[in-house]
Amino acid sequence: MPSYEWKGRDRNGNTQSGVLIADSKDAVIAALRRQQIVVTTVKEKGKEIALPRLGGGIKSKDIAVFTRQFSVMIDAGLPLVQCLDILGQQQENKGFQKVVLQVRQDVEAGSSLAEAMRKHPQAFDDLYVNMVAAGEAGGILDTILQRLAIYIEKAVKLKTQVRSAMIYPISVISIAIIVVYIILWKVIPVFASLFQGLGADLPFLTLWVVAASKFIGRFWWLIMAVVAAAVIGLRQYYQTEAGRYQIDALLLRAPVLGIILRKIAIARFCRTLGTLLSSGVAILESLEITARTSGNAVIEEAILKVRKAVEEGKTLADPLARTEQFPPMVCQMIGVGEQTGAMDTMLSKIADFYEDEVDAAVEGMMKLIEPVMIAFLGVVIGTIVVAMYLPLFTLISKIG
User: What is the residue range of 384's domain?
Assistant: First the structure.
């Protein structure tokens, strides 16, 4: 049997690592889960295998549609195997079709739906599988699937909204960089040759722009290499535990973007935890899954600390407030939910509120970014134009 190197966190949030001999990666994850270790990565013979989540070749939108249709079929009384067979045959995504048909085959062979889905983590993550298991145990699989569909649809909507909001500024900035690069590379040398032929005395600003143009024309390959190395290095650094934590912490402290990212993290935390609790998943397991799906290392660490406190018998609201990562209003509302026994409903209301806050914050950011970009581009282009026309003014005054 192959050997697997693994890294993860124990119940106290401490980093653990080791080597296990097992039949497969899933067996390693299952063995470590029994030891209450949250696995982050598994390596086989030096090849790193990142823990799968929703995504990859299978889109979250495909899973949301599948889940919605699945819940309708189950509610209509169709047998489980027949539902999976119909849904599998109609899938346009061939990778997802293969997964669904394999799940159908395993269920037909006697496995539970949750056990069959757990074999395909590239499509069904821990949150999905645990909710399905709770639905099977409680006999409310159709209701659980409806909640899952709503959860995935809201998560996709939130991600799409933020991504769409960032397309405009990124596109404008990218085009501006390309235009400035072409001006410095092709246009400025023509002006420099003209000034040199006329014997004009160049001011400091013009000398600086001409020097930048010469550098870009001579060392364009070096600029490309530095940019590529910076991107690759940053990505590799983010793959490390310390790098991911530091970058996520910097993003949360960013002036405008940090506020939006924190609101997104709070909305995701409340939506995930509320969905799991309302489906009957235990609080400790719900917190563990919520931490892994938080999308931010700082928030993940805070949730794991809260899980440890809850495991020791404390309430959820007090340790949540001590992390200083969640606003007082959120902690107080969760405390009220604990006292009234309706924490899942309270978490859903908080998630709705913060998703609306994200909408407003993204809209406000777009209104702020547009004038800032215009001012920035005006300064850059204006500086280049002024630098090129200053020697012309000097020559005209001499001629006059």
Answer: 154-400
Q: Which of 143-152, 229-238, 276-285 has the highest mean pLDDT?
A: 229-238
Are 119 and 164 members of one domain? no
List the beta bridge partners of residue 44.
4, 47
Strands 3-9 and 38-44 come out as antiparallel
Asked if residue 159 and residue 91 are part of one domain, the reply reads: no
- Return phi, psi of residue 72, to 5°: -65, -40
Q: Which two tokens stand for residue 267?
A: 């909305």
pLDDT score at 352: 87
Q: With helix as H, strand as E and coil as C, how does 295-349 read?
A: CCHHHHHHHHHHHHHHHCCCCCHHHHHHCCCCCHHHHHHHHHHHHHCCHHHHHHH
In-domain check, residue 142: no
- Residue 150: CB atoms within 10 Å: 17
pLDDT per residue as tens digits for the range 260-311: 888 888 888 888 888 888 878 888 888 888 888 787 888 888 998 998 888 8
Phi first, then psi: what are they for 90, rounded to 5°?
-95, 0
Residue 116 and residue 19 share a domain: no
Whether the predicted pLDDT of 51 surpasses 60: no
Residue 3 backbone class (left: φ over 0; alpha: ψ -120 to 50; beta: rest): beta
179-194: per-residue pLDDT in tens? Answer: 888 888 888 888 888 7
Shared-domain flag, residues 265 and 357 = yes
- Do 316 and 168 share a structural domain? yes
Q: Mean pLDDT across the stretch 52-78?
A: 76
In order of 47, 155, 260, 366, 374, the CA distances from 363 in angstroms are 43, 18, 11, 5, 17
One-character DSSP codes across 97-148: HHHHHHHHHHHHTT--HHHHHHT-TTTS-HHHHHHHHHHHHHT-HHHHHHHH
Which of 235, 254, 238 minimizes the C-alpha distance to 246?
238
Looking at the structure, do residues 79 and 165 belong to the same domain, yes or no?
no
Identify the pLDDT of residue 232.
Answer: 93
